[in-house]
Design brief:
Arc Repressor Mutant, subunit A, 8-stranded mixed beta sheet, 16 helices, binds adenosine-5'-triphosphate, binds magnesium ion, Gln-tRNA_amidoTrfase_suB_CS, glutaminyl-tRNA synthase (glutamine-hydrolyzing) activity, Asn/Gln_tRNA_amidoTrase-B-like
Length: 495
């Protein structure tokens, strides 16, 4: 009989294995393209090497190794003197060679970390290792799910796409933390330019989860090795999004709690996340390492990578950049976050800020431009070659040649919708200097026609100015800038 009682408190332990596709032009061990063509036929983007035909030899793709080194640097990991490749042997139809070329005891990255913040609390997640490997082909279960399909189709176009498998320490204590980690990892990978989150299946997660006695968790939140090794864990496969990880783990934790509550033991097993039904389903008992008969790939010599770390630069990473935006440009947290949401947005902002006043640049990029782009489902990269036009728009506003309202509501929108430059929109819509004259005329008229309000203002009635601003706004059809009108009125009335 188990010595544990059903009511005993349990702590959640989660570790992730994250597979990310690296963005390279060609596959990791052959020259086939990694880019799916529109409407491509299955099994056309292949060659003898990625099909595993007898006698075909692998050639390592330098770009994939460079991407891996960049990831290692970003995760503050150790990069060894030499790295080697191994065959991981197993039989599955998505693997034409019956082994996967991967790394074993000398992975390209080891012992790193990534800091995440969950509900304002900072947590450092240990990275055990990260290694390069090839993606298997893709499998389609025809006529339904993995359980109900009548037959299965295999497509090797994906086979050989470079993957980086990032293995974390079992440092997560909640599903929400894994979601934050995956978002952060993706952000870093995109900054490095080695990953495309929009590509289907570019991120796949295996989530390992166990429940341990809460008493075993030490004060610093860690769990002793022996306890971890002793705990039976389920490895949940087929997770393809941050949200999916959070949902699958929440389900799996409840399932394990219920198993224990019924007085049974947790099995050490591999489970499948059924996204549609929102449940995890048992697939098989967990394979042990010896099942894979790992051995060195004799066709790939050991690779010396000791000097690659110094040779390959990486850009400033999101956290550091956010911090610098706060100190260098005096941005608040919200603006700094928005303006570093992608490397491209951050670059755009800094280009405008370099040409111009950073505070104005921040308001215009963070509030106006990103908002209008988002509304149109456009990306910053759609307008990066129009940086000059955008900077001129901001300058025109600052110089008083254009009201903020017109710039935001007319000129910027026309620039995006019609691809016009700011000057031609201003000219066509008659928004330039002529309009300033119109405002001045309306200000004069408002003062002339409302002597009572003017008298009230001089008697100290602040409300009277609002009335006069309202008159001018009405006269100009709402196109004037209320702040500017207010200023002009006071100038006249006080002067
Ligand atoms: N007690 C535990 N509870 C939850 N997760 C754990 C526990 N112990 C280890 N893990 C996690 O399990 C994962 C182990 O991954 P690793 O790739 O090393 O082995 P594997 O899953 O046995 O191998 P593979 O799936 O590649 O064949 C790591 O993410 C680790 O943090
Ligand atoms: Mg695993
Ligand atoms: Mg693994």
């Amino acid at each position: 009989m188990s010595t544990r009682t059903a009511s005993e408190e349990r702590a959640v332990v989660i570790g992730l294995e994250v597979h990310v596709q690296l963005e390279t032009d060609t596959k990791v061990f052959c020259g086939c393209s990694t880019e799916p063509a529109d409407d491509e036929e299955p099994n056309t983007r292949t060659c003898p090497t990625c099909l595993g035909l007898p006698g075909a030899l692998p050639v390592l793709n330098e770009a994939a190794v460079e991407a891996a080194v960049k990831i290692g640097k970003a995760l503050d990991a150790d990069i060894p003197e030499t790295t080697t490749f191994h065959r991981k042997n197993y039989y599955y139809p998505d693997l034409p060679k019956n082994f996967q070329l991967t790394q074993y005891d000398a992975p390209i990255c080891a012992d790193g970390e990534l800091e995440v913040s969950v509900d304002g609390e900072r947590r450092t997640i240990g990275i055990t290792r990260a290694h390069l490997e090839e993606d298997p082909g893709s499998i389609q279960h025809a006529g339904g799910s993995i359980e109900s399909a009548t037959h299965t189709l295999v497509n090797y176009n994906r086979a050989g796409t470079p993957l980086m498998e990032v293995v974390t320490e079992p440092d997560f204590r909640s599903p929400a933390e894994t979601r934050a980690f995956l978002a952060k990892l993706e952000e870093v990978l995109e900054y490095l330019g080695v990953f495309d989150a929009t590509r289907d299946g570019s991120l796949r997660v295996d989530a390992n989860v166990s429940l341990v006695d809460a008493d075993e968790v030490t004060e610093d939140g860690s769990v002793p090795e022996a306890v971890l090794a002793d705990a039976n864990r389920a490895e949940v496969k087929n997770i393809s999004s941050h949200k999916g990880a959070e949902k699958a783990l929440a389900y799996e934790i409840t399932r394990q709690r219920n198993v224990l509550r019924r007085g049974r033991e947790i099995e050490q097993e591999t489970r499948h996340w059924d996204e549609g039904r929102g449940v995890t389903v048992s697939m098989r008992s967990k394979e042990a390492e010896k099942d894979y008969r790992y051995f060195r790939e004799a066709d790939l010599p050991a690779l010396e990578v000791s000097d690659w770390k110094d040779r390959i630069p990486i850009p400033e990473l999101p956290d550091a950049r956010r911090e610098r935006f706060r100190t260098e440009y005096g941005l608040d947290d919200e603006a700094a976050s928005k303006l570093t949401s992608t490397k491209e947005v951050a670059d755009f902002f800094e280009d405008v800020a370099g040409e111009y006043d950073p505070e104005l640049a921040a308001t215009w990029v963070a509030d106006n431009l990103l908002g209008e782009l988002n509304y149109r489902e456009m990306e910053i990269t759609d307008v990066t070659d129009r940086l000059d036009e955008f900077t001129r728009l901001v300058e025109l506003v600052d110089a008083g040649e254009l009201t903020v309202k017109n710039a935001e509501e007319v000129v910027l929108r026309e620039m995006l919708d019609e691809g016009e430059d700011p000057e031609s929109v201003i000219e066509r819509e008659g928004l330039g200097k002529a309009e300033s004259d119109e405002v001045e005329t309306a200000v004069e008229a408002a003062i002339e026609e409302n002597p009572d309000a003017v008298a009230d203002y001089h008697d100290g009635d602040e409300g009277a100015i609002n009335f006069l601003v309202g008159q001018v706004m009405q006269a100009t059809g709402g196109s004037a800038d209320p702040g500017q009108v207010n200023g002009l009125l006071r100038e006249r009335l006080d002067g």
